[in-house]
Amino acid sequence: MALVNISAVLRLTMQKLRKTEISSGIGLSSYKRNRKILIFKKSQKWYILKEQGYRNEEKILALESLEKALSDGIKREFPRSRKIRMYTLTDSLDLGKAYKKL
Question: Is the pLDDT confidence value at 65 over 90?
Answer without folding.
Answer: yes
